[in-house]
Structures are given as structure tokens and as C-alpha cells.
Amino acid sequence: MDLIRPMPLQAILAGRAFTPHEEIADAVVLVEEGRIVDVGRRDQVSIPSSASRHDARALAVVPGFVDVHIHGAGGHDVMESTAEALDAVTRTVAGHGTTSLVATTVTASTEQTSQAVAGIARWMKSSYAGPDGNQPRAEVLGIHFEGPFISSARRGVHPLEWIAPPSPDLLKKLLAAAEGTGRILTLAPELTGAPELISAARAAGLTVSLGHTDATYAEAMSAIQRGASHAAHVFNAMRPFEHRETGVIGAVLTSPAVTAELIADGVHVNAAAMRLLLAAKGPRGVVLVSDGISATGMPDGKYRLGTFDVTVSGGVCRNAEGKLSGSTLTLDHALKNIVALDVKLPDALAMLTANPARLLGLEKRKGALVPGADADLVLLDAELGVAGVMTRGVCAL
Ligand SMILES: [Zn+2]
Fold first, then answer.
1. Which of 144, 238, 352, 363 makes the best surface tag, with the fewest CB within 10 Å?
2. What are the Cα distances from residue 285, in Å, to 83, 326, 349?
3. How far is the CA of 96 from the centre of ligand 1 (A)?
4. 110-125 and 168-177 are packed helices; what angle lies between their axes, rounded to 10 degrees?
5. pLDDT classification of 395: cutoffs 50, 70, 90
6. Is 376 a catalytic residue?
């Protein structure tokens, strides 16, 4: 792949474009200074003679993927929060089509979490995280707090000792450390004090996500009425669906206002559960996430997730007790796995582009091939393999 610095004007010629909802044959995407300035059929877009041309007519161009639940990649965890770690994570996932992400914490001490999010916020504001450079790198859009306000009964691998009862004061502290970069809070709505916490999180501009929860249907519904609008890795770390007490899963599946994360790696959730979720939520209601950890893009072995050790074997991550501990999934593979369930390509693409962007309120800037959006593009071959990527105009095409 040739590495190309951002150019004033670039024209990407592709066999097809998916915006993602609309398919355009024989397409051109015109990019200037890291932004999309025009998208359309080749006979409808005039390409200035000064533009450098990338001929990708054997490929499809689609928006870059947006991962709202990712802990790490390339041997590093976002909670290390050093430039080296965040650089490794953002470069590794960019190679798999992820052009922006929400750095996700695991439950840890207040001090550890505060330090981690302060480091991530610092990095986001540094020029180092900017679009300049000669390699594609995913943009960090903010922080997803996975915990500490979660259920000890459904904690998965989150350390019991750091799980905290809902506290608007503690949330305030964590958000202060994050310096305005907090975006998503995953919490268990059945805990005492959760309603006040949901209100405080909404008032602070966070998306409230139901997760690691033992909530009943009624408890989950009352949280949704209070403003919870998202659910973390649905089916995983939740009270199971039972036909007379459908629990949080029943509430999420039947509430159109709630988007549902899915880890489509074929390990966390089986195909029937994936089909059920897709049927219940429809193409706009599902958000594909990786829940990827530091081992993503690395060989099997021992790795860290947040503050604890996990073992990766055959690409599957487990803690010392054998519990699933995140994944090594990348979103390009999630896309293939969903298309294999007979989901139409534009719908599948929306689940990792337009839907997560809308969840973050960034639909004008991310997850779409529209004028004014960031030039975050992925080139896909006929087998949906990533053949090239552009992040804010920086490309390896
Ligand atoms: Zn989790």
C-alpha cells in the first residue's frame, strides 16, 4: 500500500459506493482537506484537473466504521492511556476499517479510571491525535464508561472489588477527569440510586446504556422512560430472557428507541440469537461493536484487559475462571458475519457506520458518505475484505 499524506484535493473512483443507505454505481468521492466535498455518479461529479485520482473501480467505497465499544488492540489497552498505547490501538483497528471509536474503560478503582480517562482526554486534545501524519489512524471520539455502576451478578469479568453503587457524585468526578470527553455510560438500572444516576448522566450529555445488568423487564422499561437509549452487548452479561419475566432483553428487543450492541463474532452470541436481535430491532436498531481487547490483531497468548490478565486461545479471550473477556473481533469480520446471515449489504453497513454515528449525535460528521462529513472511507473487495482505508483524508489505498 502506498502511504499518502493529506492532499488538497483527491478523487476516489470506485465501482460502487454505499452511503451506506444508497448504492451508487460507478461512483466518485471527492475529498478536500480531510472532508468529503462531493459524492455521486462519475458522470454527475466534475473532477477538477488538480485532483489526484485513486482508481478503485474494482472495489466498493463505504463509510469508515465507528466502534462504540472497544477496549484495545495491537497489544495495548486504552486504559494504559499513553500515546504509545493509543497510537497502537488506533492504527491497528484502522487496518480493519475502523476509522473512529469510543475508547471503553473496564471497571477499575476511581483513581485508575480517572487517570486513564484523563490520559485519553489529553491524547485526544494533542496534535498527535490529529489527522496529520502518514498513516491512517482511527479518531478517538470520546470515552465509554463500562462500569463501575454495574451488577455484581452480571459483571462478567469486571472486577467485583471495584463495582460501585450508583453515585452522581462519583460520575461527576469521572466526567471531570475526562474533561468533556465522556460519551456513553453503561450501567445496571436495577441498582438502588440508578434512576438519579441516569438523570445525572443524561443531564451531562451522556448516552445511557443498559448493560452488565440483572434488571427485570419493569426495571429496564423504567430506565428507558428515564432516557436510557442504548444497550451494551445485548444477550451478554444480562438476565436471560424468560417468557414470563423477559428481563432487560425483553425491554430492549421491544423498545424502538433503544439501540442494541451486538458482538457478531459467532462466539458471544449464536446465529439464532443474532437473527432474533436483527428481526426485533431492524436495520436501524443494531450497532455492531467489537468489544475488542489488546489481543486484537495479535497472536494467541497472555494479555491485559484493563487491570487484569486474560488468556487468548484460538482468538477467544477468557479470564482465569474461563469467562469470556471481550473479543479479538474486528469490525470488518463483524460485517462479513452479519452479511452471512442474509442481511443486505447497505443494512449491514449501517450497523457499523450510520447507526453508531447517530447514537453519538455525529451523523453529519461520521458514518456517512455525504458532503461535509469527515473523509473516513473504506474500500471493500468483492469478499468484503478491506482493500484500503482513509481516515480524515489520510489514506493507504
Ligand atoms: Zn462488557
1. 363
2. 34, 22, 12
3. 22
4. 40
5. confident
6. no
Which residues have CB under 8 Å from 260's CB, separation 6+?
230, 231, 234, 252, 253, 277, 281, 285, 286, 287
| pTM of the complete model | 0.96
What distance in angstroms lies between residue 320's CA and the mean position of ligand 1's atoms?
16
Residue-wise pLDDT for 280-331, tens only, equals 999 999 999 999 999 999 999 999 998 889 999 999 999 988 999 999 999 9
How far does residue 319's CA lie from ligand 1's centre (Å)?
A: 13
Distance 5 CA to ligand 1 centre (A): 37
Cα angle 65, 70, 75; round to 5: 110
- The burial class, CB within 10 Å (0-12 / 13-18 / 19+), for 16 is middle
Tell me the HSE value of 304 on the side-chain side, using a 13 A CA sphere.
12
In degrees to the nearest 10, what's the CA dihedral of 323, 207, 306, 194? -70
Question: How many helices and strands (H and E) does the chain possess?
Answer: 10, 21
**Rounded Cα gap, residues 298 and 265, in angstroms:** 16
Helices (H), the chain: 83-94, 110-125, 168-177, 194-203, 217-226, 247-253, 271-281, 331-339, 345-350, 354-359
* Of residues 104, 235, 108, 236, the one with CA closest to residue 160: 108
Distance from C-alpha of 72 to C-alpha of 327, rounded to nearest angstrom: 10
Which one of 77, 265, 291, 374 is the catalytic residue?
291
Q: Which amino acid is at 69?
A: H
Q: How far apart are CA 187 and CA 352, in angstroms?
A: 22
| CA–centroid distance, residue 192 to ligand 1 (Å) | 21
